[in-house]
Automatic annotation (TrEMBL):
It holds the Pfam family Oscp1. GO terms for cellular component: cytoplasm; plasma membrane. It comes from the Eukaryota. This is Organic solute carrier partner 1. The lineage of its organism: Eukaryota, Metazoa, Chordata, Craniata, Vertebrata.
Length: 355
C-alpha cells in the first residue's frame, strides 16, 4: 500500500537507483571491506534503516520491522541451505546479479556495482574451504535466535510453525562430492579392497556443473535469486521462541564496553554516505501491510526486545556537522574517558544528542 501519490515506474526506478547508489557508495564499500568483527544486531539494523530511507520512500516503524524481518529470515534461509560453505559467495553473486538487472539502464550505478563485484572476487575467491566454513558458521551464529515465521516459507513448507527451517533430504549434492550410498574400504597401502552399498532416505543427484565465481556466468545455485514466482502478500509473525527472547537479548540492553567503539565506527561509516534529497519532496510512504490498521496493530504488539530504537545519525545535512563528526571520529581508537570529563564528542550518544 502506498500513500501521498500514485506510484509510477519512474518513481520505482528512482527509488531503486537512489538506494543502490547509496548502498554501493565507494566510501561505504571501503569501510565494509576493512577487516572487522561482525556487526551487532543493532548496528546492522541502523545501517539497514539508513539504506532503506536513502530515497523518497518512507516506512513507519511497523513496516520497517516487517521488511527487516523478511530480509533477515530470507538471508538466514539462504545461508543455512548452502550445499557447501563456499556457496555463500554464489548466493552473494546472485544478489548482485539481481541488483544489476534493476539498474541496467543506469551505467554510472552499474559501474559501482561491478566495482564491488570485482572486489568481492578478488577478496573471497582465493579463500580456502575452511575459511568459508568459518564465515558461514559466524553468520549462522548471528541468526540462530531469530525464528520469525514468513508466510512464503510456510506456504512452500520450507519453514515449520515454530519458525525453524526444514532442511531438504533430496536434490543435488554439493559440487565435488558423490551421491551417498557407497562405502569403500581401503587397506594400509591405500588400495581399495571392498565395497558396500546402503540405501538412503533421500533422492540425491550429482550436480551437472559448478556455479561460476566470475563477474559473468551461470551461478547454477538458485539460492539468492528472486523467491517470488507469483505476486503474493508476505506476512511475518513472531514465533514463540522469538517472543521469549528477552533473556537472550540482554546483551542488547546491558552496557557493552565495546558499544562506544562500535557506534563511533558506525557513525564514520554512515557519515560518508552522500544522499541527495530534493527540496520540498515529502516522498512516498510504503506500507507493507494490507491496511493501516494492521500496520498499527503490528507496531503495538511487537515484543519490545525486537523493536529496535534506531539512532538517526545526520552527518550529511550540513558541512559543519560533517566536519565536526569527521574530526571526532578520525580514528577508530577511542581513548578511555577522563575522570570528571563529559565534554561534547567524547561519547557518540552525547554528540548526537547535541546535534
Amino acid at each position: 500500500m502506498l500513500r501521498v501519490d500514485e506510484w509510477t515506474d519512474v518513481d520505482r526506478k528512482r527509488v531503486m537507483n537512489d538506494i543502490i547508489s547509496t548502498m554501493f557508495n565507494r566510501k561505504f564499500m571501503e569501510e565494509l571491506f576493512k577487516p572487522q568483527d561482525l556487526y551487532s544486531k543493532k548496528a546492522l539494523r541502523t545501517v539497514y534503516d539508513r539504506l532503506a530511507h536513502a530515497s523518497i520512500m518512507r516506512l513507519n516503524q511497523a513496516s520497517m520491522d516487517k521488511l527487516y524481518d523478511l530480509m533477515t529470515m530470507a538471508f538466514k534461509y539462504q545461508v543455512l541451505l548452502c550445499p557447501r560453505p563456499r556457496d555463500v559467495l554464489l548466493v552473494t553473486f546472485n544478489h548482485l546479479d539481481a541488483i544489476k538487472d534493476f539498474i541496467s539502464d543506469s551505467p554510472g550505478i552499474l559501474n559501482q556495482v561491478d566495482e564491488t563485484f570485482r572486489r568481492l572476487i578478488e577478496t573471497y575467491n582465493p579463500l580456502s574451504d575452511g575459511e568459508f566454513q568459518l564465515i558461514r558458521q559466524t553468520l549462522l551464529i548471528f541468526f540462530q535466535d531469530m525464528h520469525i515465521r514468513v508466510s512464503i516459507f510456510l506456504k512452500d513448507k520450507v519453514q515449520n510453525s515454530n519458525g525453524r527451517f526444514v532442511l531438504p533430504i533430496s536434490g543435488p549434492v554439493p559440487w565435488g562430492t558423490e551421491v551417498p550410498g557407497l562405502i569403500r574400504i581401503f587397506n594400509h597401502k591405500g588400495v581399495e579392497v571392498k565395497r558396500a552399498e546402503f540405501s538412503t532416505a533421500g533422492n540425491y543427484v550429482t550436480p551437472q556443473r559448478e556455479g561460476s565465481f566470475e563477474l559473468y556466468g551461470d551461478r547454477v545455485l538458485k539460492l539468492g535469486t528472486n523467491m517470488y514466482s507469483v505476486t503474493r502478500p508476505v506476512e511475518t509473525h513472531m514465533s514463540g521462541s522469538s517472543k521469549n527472547l528477552a533473556s537472550q537479548a540482554k546483551e542488547n540492553i546491558a552496557p557493552n564496553p565495546l558499544a562506544k567503539e562500535e557506534l563511533n565506527f558506525l557513525a564514520r561509516l554512515l557519515g560518508g554516505l552522500d544522499i541527495q534529497k530534493p527540496a520540498g519532496d515529502s516522498g512516498f510512504r510504503l506500507n507493507l501491510f494490507t491496511t493501516d490498521e494492521e500496520e498499527e496493530h503490528a507496531a503495538q504488539t511487537r515484543p519490545e526486545e525486537l523493536s529496535y530504537k534506531v539512532i538517526n545519525i545526520e552527518a550529511t545535512q550540513e558541512p559543519a556537522r560533517r566536519a565536526e563528526l569527521s574530526r571526532i571520529l578520525g580514528e577508530l581508537d577511542v581513548a578511555e574517558p577522563r575522570p570528571g570529563s563529559a565534554g561534547k564528542g567524547e561519547d557518540l550518544l552525547a554528540l548526537m544528542d547535541g546535534l
